[in-house]
Specification:
The protein is of the alpha/beta class and 235 residues long. The chain has 2 domains: 5-122, Response regulator (Rossmann fold), CATH 3.40.50.2300; 132-227, Winged helix-like DNA-binding domain superfamily/Winged helix DNA-binding domain (Arc Repressor Mutant, subunit A), CATH 1.10.10.10. Helix content is 40%, strand content 20%. The strands form 3 sheets. The chain has a 5-stranded parallel β-sheet with strand order 2-1-3-4-5, with helices on both faces. A 4-stranded antiparallel β-sheet has the order 6-7-8-9, with no helix packed on it. Strand 11 (217-220) and strand 12 form a beta hairpin. Helix 2 packs parallel to helix 3 and helix 7 (177-185) crosses helix 8 (193-207). The longest helix has 16 residues, at 107-122. The mean pLDDT is 88.
């Protein structure tokens, strides 16, 4: 965390100060904003390494703030929400969020999530094994960090990209939920198996022709997931 620039966007002054103190104590430089409009201004001005963003704010809310930031940057974003529901997480994923922390939370939890997200973002996705795939519908090029569906580029968050990379480079193997969680998210998420299900479901929506009947991202019920290649692959 030393030397990292953190932007906190939340209309709760006391919470902002608590978060600022926690990051400052860990060696980070912290900027704060009380609404989305000010947050966007701070983002343009300081180009932070991580954003902590509240969902519920006046004027420009967290969803729209996240969407606008994603048009310009792949910076990691943690959203703060009072709603611990899959549909809210999926909505956040649609807007480009990387992680979610439900209020109320402890500062230790937030700091652990922030460290894990920064670590995942800075470390390159695993590159052992095959790096390209093309079957006419789906194209994966890990050397260029590109994914295409029907010739159109697919925008993936850092977490979504690491999840796809891990599954793809272990194609044909059943990976347990816990193994995926440990390798993609890290030990800080040991009790968050639901993350795997929600992110996998969202990845299907981006890659599959019919997410309800997937061809690539398959479920081994009660065990885990596996990536399946087509034998007609052009790679």
């Amino acid at each position: 965390m030393q030397g990292k620039r953190i932007l906190v966007i939340d209309d709760d002054y006391n919470l902002c100060q608590m978060i600022k103190f926690s990051f400052n104590r860990a060696g980070a430089q912290v900027y704060t904003a009380s609404d989305g409009r000010e947050g966007l201004h701070q983002f343009y001005q300081h180009r932070p390494d991580l954003i902590v963003l509240d969902v519920r704010m006046p004027d420009i809310d967290g969803w729209e703030t996240c969407r606008q930031i994603r048009l310009l940057s792949n910076i990691p974003i943690i959203m703060l929400t009072t709603l611990d529901k899959d549909e809210e997480i999926v909505r956040g994923l649609d807007y480009g969020a990387d992680d979610f922390v439900t209020k109320p939370f402890s500062r230790e939890v937030l700091m652990a999530r922030a460290r894990a997200l920064l670590r995942r973002t800075e470390l390159p996705a695993e590159s052992d094994g095959e790096n390209t795939y093309n079957d006419g519908h789906l194209v994966i090029d890990l050397t260029k960090h590109l994914v295409f569906v029907q010739g159109k580029p697919v925008q993936l968050t850092a977490t979504e990209y690491r999840l796809l990379t891990y599954l793809f480079q272990n194609a044909g193997q059943v990976l347990t939920y816990q193994t995926i969680l440990d390798r993609v998210w890290g030990w800080e998420y040991h009790d968050s198996i639901d993350y795997v299900h929600v992110y996998l479901s969202h990845l299907r929506r981006k890659l599959e022709e019919d997410p309800r009947c997937p061809k690539y991202l398959l479920t081994e019920r009660g065990i885990g997931y596996r990536f399946e290649k087509f034998t007609t692959s052009l790679s």
